[in-house]
Write the structure tokens for this entry.
Amino acid sequence: MSALERIAERLMNRLGHFFARRHDRRIDEKLTRYANTRKENVFLVQIGSNDGKTNDPFHDWIVHYDWSGLLVEPVPFVFERLVRNHHGRSKIVPVNAAISDREETKKFFHLRACESSDIPWWYDQIGSFEKSQVLKSQKDIPDLADLLTFTEVKCLSLTTLFETHRIPKINIFHTDLEGYDFEVLKQLDFALWSPDLILFEHKHLDYANRNACAHMLKNQGYKLIEGSADTLAIKNGCSS
């Protein structure tokens, strides 16, 4: 395969999200109905944004309806793409940080930037505080150990993130955190924020944490729709 062919294949891999739906049909329908009903009146908080476009369930609505929000991504080279992809959107604030339970600097494991067509397009979406979590993808990325690195990232609690940026509300709260989703959701003060929709990745949660997360959300007045990889929590009374 020529260099040009490799570049073309890599590009098609990165554009694959335009041709495949990320979520199950019921989740897609609920998100679409909510977005088209609320239109521009949405504030999104997204933890684990990646580049804000690739495989992002909210990108098109952010663009079409000019949504407001905070998009949080810890990996520097991915964050640079996030900033470029939302350049000129004054209501979108990219934040280069990770969410933890305290303000600290912490090792965040991820793969180095790579343009090879031999690795999956999602290779830069598997970052984690836990090295072992990243290594779980070794069966799909044979050279993973050679690409594995870490960055000392700035960590914030949700409270600090919200206070720093003085957010007015949260309509949608989205996490995509390779198994760390429940740890972040536990920090959400439902008495203060109570988002209409919460979308989180359950794929990497173990049985106990997945059940505990579902129980917590149901106790906070949410009904759940479980897809193959993600769960959508809808606040009781929300029109979605």
About this structure: The chain has a mean pLDDT of 91. The first helix runs from residue 3 to 14. The CA atoms of residues 148 and 182 lie 25 Å apart.
